[in-house]
Amino acid sequence: MSTNQTTNAAEANVAKRIFNLIILDESGSMYCVAGQTISGCNETIQTVRMMQNSNKDTQVHYVSIYLFESGRSRYIVHNQPVDAVLDITDKDYRPNACTPLFDALGFTLTELKEIMGQPDTLGYVTIITDGEENSSCRYTLEDVRNLIDELKKKDVIFSFIGANIDAAEYAKRLNIGNSMQFVQDDEGT
Question: Which run of H or E residues covers position 54?
Answer without folding.
Answer: helix 34-54
